[in-house]
Design goal:
30 strands, Aldehyde Oxidoreductase, domain 4, 765 residues, 27% strand, binds dioxothiomolybdenum(VI) ion, 4 domains, single chain, 26% helix, alpha+beta, seven-stranded mixed sheet, five-stranded mixed sheet
Length: 765
């Protein structure tokens, strides 16, 4: 039987090293061997909730409605920086259908972002919250916003890193415009010595833009007080974080709050924290005694709910004639907007290649714009573009095939802690990916294609964490009719959590998938499960499901032993039936065991085991891109991507391909078109809709995407051997595309996105 203990353990989550004290299961069963052929796990099984999604039955927070529900809208600051001189709510209050209005004058101070308040008279970006109205309809609430009279003192603002770093720049906070007051530094070895040992030192500067998450489903909460208990439907990646955030803001116990999230139309990191809008809706619901729905619109999503910070990366590599890296340094600054966040992007350079001498310095800088948040592989997408571009330049300098250069500097051990990897099959990814792509045939010196439309190829590598970890709990219930109920307080944000959980349980208990119901996203019924971020859902949850199912199997065998009067050691479990060895008529079906129990049901709690110390646990991959660039229009088209990844065991081939395709298309958007643009004179955002803020459509997507998985299971990571895949899929895409564009043109465009104007500029003489 599994026993449990509480331990200190650690993991990476979204570029941060976390120490957890967590309850774990000490599992007595072995991990699935890497090459074991499984019946359900790994197969291309359609989503078990696919029908609900396509038929419109699946309930998103956006769909939740209650009788007597009120609608809330937020008045946002129209300026980049201002202070409220006075605010008059009277006209708005008198409007027919307006129920309540909250602002800093009539609401208790609730601390937010450690630097300000839920409502703060100082407004630090266009979109900062001024007031929130509840009304009988959304249209009335919107109209009422226009009737709120606010007098603002406009204040000086800064919009980019260089301006914010000037000694006389207006400061966003008393402590200055650098987050934490200083850069983060990392070093190993001696970079100066490393550069001296090099035959060549390559230096360059690369820039990346601010990218906005823009998930399909807007941020939305529907809150409903039932007596002194609060039900919050929220489009969130982290129900337990929202429960904690709302409890702290309203100063009520967590047990009085129930947060629910069943389906989500994308989050990408923008839905990992408690929203101000959620707390405002809860206050309005308490004040009015009515359920309140608050749904942000596309403009608000482009102003106020997060973005990927920009970067200016000064990179330097020391390299020997044979391609050996002797030193790497990275100095970066990026804007995090008006409240604390991080803009570092040097992790790929520290970890992915073998290099003894490394120095990095990262500045995260405040400006008067919407605050950054984690965005699918925070830091890694930017940093990988910079590093992989520089390495391409290095390869060109010494006349080496860029793939050979990556292989030459292959890291056999983790570079930061000098630990062995739990598994690393990046070499196989290079070899199989190059083979499938036809790299040897397609790669040619940069700019050597003739004609007006030029083709080029490029590649970039990827490293990420995504090992997941405890705490993760799963409950599994077996009913008298043989059906199963699995519950976990994590969420399915689109990756397929419902489906893979059912697959893992079906695998162990050998029961049909449709006999399993999965319930997620409910803090009141589900045991604690992880936030859906950091590519950690599948690697955290799948082993806990297996633990629960294995415990259930053991329990069933002991039940059969009692009922059949045969010692457990003589019983075997197969396809939901337990049989005594050699006694054919002594057998019993799982459902019959359960129905004979007085309880008529069996319940177990499964857990994630600890992350074994002494190993670096990473995912790896490489993507190869083929592009064509029209030298007349400057337009880049991505023709083909081959994505070869080591992500441990595949849980579901179909969902995996979906997720990798999604990551590649999002990476393509970042490489070629997505960018938040600020008006330099007013500080206002110019890209507040999906016409001006361009995301890729199906016509922009590569006609060919090939997914190669080089890994089987990783038995050191967990009993299922799964590494996360959500973020790895996007990390190398922009770097690979940028290198392919350089290969096509023979000139390098050093700032993303690679828009037609920049291409034409680069081609002009
Ligand atoms: Mo996180 S950026 O939601 O994986």
């Amino acid at each position: 039987m599994a026993s449990h203990k509480i331990i200190k353990t650690k993991r990476f989550f979204e570029e941060d090293f976390e120490e957890n004290i967590a309850e774990v299961s000490e599992q007595s069963f072995p991990a699935w061997p890497p090459n074991e052929e499984l019946k359900y796990v790994g197969k291309a099984i359609p989503r078990i909730d696919g029908y609900d999604k396509v038929s419109g039955t699946a309930r998103y927070a956006f769909d939740v409605s209650y009788p007597n529900m009120a609608f809330a809208k937020i008045l946002r600051c129209p300026y980049a920086h201002a202070r409220i001189k006075s605010i008059n709510l009277e006209k708005a209050r008198q409007m027919e259908g307006v129920l309540d209005i909250i602002t800093y004058e009539n609401t208790p101070k609730i601390e937010w972002y450690r630097t300000s308040f839920l409502f703060d008279p100082e407004l630090r970006y266009e979109g900062d919250e001024v007031a929130c109205v509840a009304a009988e309809s959304e249209a009335i609430a919107e109209k009422a916003l226009e009737l709120i009279e606010v007098e603002y003192d406009q204040l000086p603002f800064v919009l980019n890193a260089a301006a914010a770093m000037k000694p006389d720049a207006p400061n966003l906070f008393e402590s200055g415009n650098i987050v934490r007051g200083k850069p983060s530094e990392y070093k190993r070895g001696d970079v100066e010595l490393g550069f001296k040992e090099a035959d060549y030192v390559i230096e360059d500067t690369f820039e990346t833009q601010v990218e906005v998450h823009n998930p399909t489903e807007p941020h939305c909460s529907v809150v409903n007080w039932d007596g002194n208990r609060l039900l919050v439907w929220d489009s969130t990646q982290a129900i337990f974080r929202v429960r904690e955030g709302v409890a702290q803001a309203l100063k009520i116990p967590e047990s009085k709050i129930r947060v629910m999230m069943k389906y989500m139309g994308g989050g990408f990191g923008s839905k990992l924290e408690t929203g101000k809008y959620t707390v405002m809706a809860a206050i309005l619901a308490r004040n009015t005694g009515r359920p309140v729905r608050i749904a942000l619109d596309r403009v608000e999503m482009n102003l106020a709910v997060g973005n990927r910070p920009s970067s200016i990366q000064k990179l330097k590599a020391g390299i020997k004639k044979d391609g050996t890296l002797t030193a790497l340094s990275h100095h970066s600054s990026g804007v995090v907007g008006a409240y604390p966040s991080g803009a570092g992007c040097s992790w790929p350079l520290r970890t992915i290649y073998k290099c003894p001498n490394v120095f990095t310095e990262e500045y995260s800088i405040y400006i008067n714009a919407g605050r950054a948040r984690p965005f699918r592989a925070p830091g890694h997408v930017q940093g990988t573009f910079g590093l992989e571009s520089l390495l391409d330049e290095a390869a060109e300098k010494i006349g080496m095939d860029p793939l050979e250069l990556r292989l030459k500097n292959y890291a056999e051990k983790d570079q930061v802690e000098n630990l062995p990897y739990s598994s690393k099959l990046l070499k196989q990814a290079y070899i199989q990916g190059a083979e499938a792509f036809g790299w040897k045939k397609k790669w040619k010196p940069a700019g050597s294609d003739s004609g007006l439309i030029k083709k080029g190829v490029g590649l970039a590598s990827q490293i990420w964490w995504g090992e997941g970890g405890p705490p993760t709990y799963v409950t599994l219930e077996l009913n008298g009719d043989g059906s199963l109920l699995l519950q976990c307080g994590t969420q399915d944000i689109g990756g397929g959590t419902y489906t893979f959980m059912a697959q893992v349980a079906a695998e162990v208990l050998e029961v049909p998938l449709d006999s399993i119901q999965v319930i997620l996203g409910d803090t009141s019924t589900c045991p604690y499960g992880p936030s859906s971020g950091g590519s950690q859902t599948a690697p955290s949850v799948s082993p806990a499901v297996r633990d629960a199912a294995e415990q259930m199997k053991e329990k069933l065998i002991s039940g059969a032993a009692a009922i059949l009067d045969v010692p457990a050691s003589q019983l075997t479990y197969s396809k939901g039936t337990i049989t005594a060895k050699g006694i054919a008529d002594k057998s019993i079906k799982v459902a019959d065991i359960v129905s004979k129990l007085d309880a008529g049901a069996m319940v177990v709690t499964g857990m994630r085991a600890e992350n074994k110390p002494g190993y670096a646990m990473n995912s790896f991959g490489v993507q190869f891109a083929e592009v064509e660039v029209d030298t007349l229009t400057g337009r880049v088209r991505v023709l083909k991507i081959v994505a070869a990844h080591d992500i441990g065991r595949t849980l579901n081939r179909m969902l995996l391909e979906n997720q990798i395709h999604g990551g590649i298309i999002q990476g393509l958007g970042y490489a070629l078109m997505e960018e938040r643009v600020l008006n330099a004179y007013t500080g206002k955002v110019l890209t507040t809709n999906l016409h001006d803020y361009k995301i890729p459509t199906i016509k922009d997507s590569p006609p060919e995407i090939e997914v190669i998985i080089v890994s089987e299971g990783d038995p050191i990571i967990s009993n299922t051997g799964v590494k996360g895949v959500g973020e790895p899929a996007m990390i190398p895409t922009p770097g690979a595309i940028a290198n392919a564009v350089h290969n096509a043109l023979g000139v390098r465009i050093k700032s993303l996105p690679l828009t037609p104007d920049k291409v034409l500029m680069a081609l002009s003489v």
